[in-house]
Structure formats: C-alpha cells, structure tokens
Design a protein that fits this description.
Udp-n-acetylmuramoylalanyl-d-glutamate--2,6- Diaminopimelate Ligase, Chain: A, domain 1, UDP-N-acetylmuramoyl-L-alanine:D-glutamate ligase, alpha/beta, 17 helices, Protein-Tyrosine Phosphatase, Chain A, 5-stranded parallel sheet, about 500 residues, 8-stranded mixed sheet
C-alpha cells in the first residue's frame, strides 16, 4: 500500500508520497524491515522517538511520531505533511525519510493499522464487552452459545486469544491496535467477541472498530492508579459505546448503579439500549438459578453448573446478546446448562480431606464480596482466604478488600502477588500495616492453609486466577492451581504433606 493511501484516515499529504510503498508497520525498531512504516509511541517506560534512527537503519521508509521535527534533530527526516494547506519546507529526495507528526501516536497507529489491513471488521459481527468484573466469563458463555448453534467465533480476552480455532496466549486483555487488526484480518470466523479493558480504550487499541453490540457488566473500584477517580474510569468505559454502529445496540446490567447511569446517557443520545433489570426482569435469582421475563413475554429458566449470583448476571448478559443474534431460547438455555466455567474464575478443586478450594481472579472489593458470599451460601463451616496486592497499583482499594475478607472469612491471610517494581521489603511492610497475618511466600501460604482445612471448610485463593507467577517462591509451581495440586496429590497416600 502506498503511504498516501495508508495515511488517508489521518491527513492529506504530499502527492510525492504516493511513490513510497509500505509493506509493513512496526512500533518496535528491532522489528523494522525494508519498506516499513515506523510509528513512534511514547510509552510509560520506553519512548519510541528515541529509536527512530535505529528504525531507519533497519529499513523504515517513513516515520509517524508526536514530537516536532526540529526537536528530533534527525537529518534524513523531512516534513511530509500539509501544514495549513502548504507543502512542508523541504523537497523530498530519494534519500529523504518522510516524517508525519500527529497529535497522538497510539490513535494514529490504530487508524493506520485498520487502513493497512483493509478495515477487517467491516463485514463481521463484532461484540465488545466491558466492565470491571465479568468480562471474561460473559465472553466465554457467549462464545459457547454461538458455537453450539453452529457458528465460529474469534475471541480476544484476558485468558487467551482464539482465531480460526487456533489459541494463542494473551498478553493484555485487549491487544495493541497493530496486533488486533492483524489478527482480525486473519479471521474467517462468523463472530468477533472482544473483551475491552479501560486501558485498551484510553490507549486507542480499538480505534476504528465499529461494534454491533456493546455490553456493560459493572463498574467497581479498580485502576484508580491509572484513572483519576471513579467518574473518570466510568467516562473512559462509556466511550466504547460511541463506537456502536448506527444499528448497534447496548446491552447493560441495570443492577449496577453505573450501568443505569450509562443507560440514561445512551438513551438520551438516541442509542438502542437493552437494560437487564428493566427491559428484562430477573424474577428469581440465586447461586445456580435465575428466572428471566424476556422482552417477548417468555419466562426463561437459567440453570448453571458454575456457582454464584454474579454468574447468573453474566449468563443473563450472554443470553440477551444471543437472543439479539437470533439464537433460540432452547439452544441458549442448553448451552448455559452445559457451561463448565473458565480457568481461574471460581474454579473449584477438592481437598483430599473433603474441603473445597476455590481459585479465582477476584481483585476488587465487589468481586471479593461476590466470591465469598457464594462460598457462604454453599454452607461452608469455615472460610480461609489467601490474597495479595500488585505493587505500584491502586492502593486506595486495598483496605476495603481486607475489611470485606475479614468480615466474611474465618481466616484472612495476606501474601505476595506481583511485586511489579515494588521491593519485597516494601510490600511486606504494606501487608503488615493492612493486616497482621502475613506469609510473604505465596506457595508456603497456600501450603499452610491447606494443612488447616478439614471437611466442610473452603479455601479461597484470589488475585491470580489463571495467571502464572512472576515472582520466585520456595516451591516449584507456576500457578495457584499447580500449587494446590502439588500439595494435595500425594496426601491420601502419605496422609501428610512432604
């Protein structure tokens, strides 16, 4: 694709640039090859503008960035943009590298990637799911419903990405714009389901994608180290719904106060809204069962294998979306009945002594409450709760999380999550200030609590879910599930931990 065509969504540029052929796009100078457009991103820890010369040496034929050309001081760069209707001051020679200055490189990247890959979602049905909690479970439920009905699904989310039936690890909940558009262009699937994080929205990773359906699950105290406050966090989430197609619909959890606020805003903007709790009622609602009265007057009984009232809400959101997509009520209900859960989301393991062990990704006050209340409803004799906090992340949510755990549990034990740049000593001091019971080594903490557990007890390990450990612990395990398995597999044989 020629450079002028590639930049059409951004700016009108000099006709001379039609001769520049772009065969690839990169935001990493080391990944640049011949005939590549390099886009310099100002990141939190790395500034791509510092690697422009390396990108040129590796074969970049054009550069997009945010800094002024004079500020960069790179001789071969030439101003290639129209400035107030005039061509830049320098004539482009065969040795020149066109430089296009933009206000926001991340936003430019998304639009350029979309153009380069031919707007790959234009003929696909695209579903975006946002919210603090429930995105992953709702997306997996919806994917199962659609696939059981004979469809194929592309999925992008925090557990993994899946395109054309091929599963790859997920680095971020929402991939960067370049990877996302590339993978979308490869997809031959009928539907695209995309978990949309607030970081993904604010960093313009989904820029240029038009959605047929956008779902809002809830909003809870989270990421306030990144967003200024809850209002700012909410406002970022709401911008997803600005990317609905003219015929697109918003499906919103009206049992969440932020959800009702969002619905009012969208209705005022003449968006089509389906509100769970208003347009569709939940007449009965408990751990594994919910009865919905749908918009067409039918009563729909939801039965789930997975525990938790919150999963009834997740299932209801998936059901409402599937009904909009034309899936029959009977097919949806059967798929949800067969849904066995998501790795690291209220995943239940059995202790050899008869206790139950729950591994969950919960890392907010509300998620703790939902998880622990579900355990209490199962008749737990005692609840032992193990969790930690990630370093250099939102500190204001920590004390409320400790308090709800202490309120609902018989033992609250703090341990290490990810240091994330914080020193071990500093994190240990923080944990002791929050709560007296601390075992810093996560594997030892799990081991000691498993030794305490007896029949009828529940052990709840939260925060990591499916994720692998980033820190090195005493025992040779990589996830919470592996740690549990390590200490329970030989218990019956030895009646003791080794």
């Amino acid at each position: 694709m020629n450079l002028a065509k590639l930049l059409e969504p951004l700016i009108k540029i000099d006709d001379k640039l039609h001769s520049f052929k772009i065969e690839g796009i990169s935001i990493n100078s080391k990944g640049v090859e011949q005939n590549t457009l390099f886009i310099a991103i100002s990141g939190e820890s790395v500034n791509g503008h510092e690697f422009i010369e390396e990108a040129i040496r590796n074969g970049a034929v054009a550069i997009v960035g945010e800094k002024n050309l004079d500020e960069l001081g790179i001789e071969r760069l030439e101003d290639a943009t129209f400035m107030k209707g005039k061509i830049g001051p320098n004539e482009l020679s065969e040795y020149s590298i066109p430089y296009i200055q933009v206000e926001n490189s991340r936003k430019a990247l998304a639009k350029i990637a979309c153009q380069f890959y031919g707007n790959p979602t234009k003929n696909k049905t695209v579903i975006g799911i946002t919210g603090t909690n429930g995105k992953t479970t709702t997306s997996f439920m919806l994917k199962k419903i659609l696939e059981d009905a004979g469809n194929t699904c592309t999925l992008f989310g925090s557990i993994h990405n899946e395109v054309n039936g091929q599963v790859t690890p997920s680095i971020n909940t929402t991939p960067d714009a370049l990877e996302l558009q590339n993978r979308l262009a490869q997809s031959n699937d009928d539907f695209v389901i995309l978990e949309v994080s607030s970081h993904g929205i604010s960093q313009h990773r989904i820029e240029g994608i038009e959605f047929d359906y956008c779902l809002f699950t809830n909003l809870d105290h989270e990421h306030l180290d990144y967003h200024h406050d809850m209002e700012d966090y909410f406002n970022v989430k709401t911008t997803l719904f600005e990317q609905l197609k003219p015929t697109g619909k918003a499906i919103i959890n009206g049992f969440d106060l932020w959800g009702t606020k969002l619905s009012k805003q969208l209705i005022a903007d003449n968006k089509q809204v389906i509100l769970l709790g208003q347009n569709v009622q939940l007449k009965e609602w408990h751990s594994c069962f919910g009865k919905l009265t749908s918009f067409d007057g039918d009563d729909i009984d939801l039965h789930l294998q997975v525990l938790g009232k919150h999963n009834i809400l997740n299932a209801s959101m998936a059901l409402l979306t599937a009904r909009e997509l034309g899936i029959t009520k009977e097919s949806i209900v059967q798929s949800l009945l067969q849904f066995s859960g998501v790795p690291g989301r209220f995943e239940i393991l059995t202790h050899p002594k008869g206790a139950k062990i729950v591994i969950d990704y919960a890392h907010t006050h509300d998620a703790f409450s939902q998880c622990l209340q579900t355990i209490k409803e199962q008749g737990a004799k005692r609840i032992f709760h193990i969790f930690g906090f990630r370093g250099n992340r939102d500190q204001t949510k920590r004390q409320p999380m400790v308090e709800i755990s202490k309120e609902l549990c018989d033992l609250t034990l703090l341990t290490l999550d990810d240091l994330n740049g914080t020193t071990k000593e500093s994190m240990e001091q923080t944990l002791h200030e929050l709560h007296g019971a601390v075992i810093l080594d996560r594997t030892i903490a799990i081991k000691q609590v498993l030794e305490l557990a007896n029949e009828g007890d529940w052990v709840c390990i939260t925060g990591k879910g499916h994720e692998t450990y980033k820190e090195k612990f005493q025992y040779p395990t990589a996830t919470d599930k592996e740690t549990v398995d390590f200490f329970t597999k030989d218990f019956n044989k030895n009646n003791n931990y080794q």
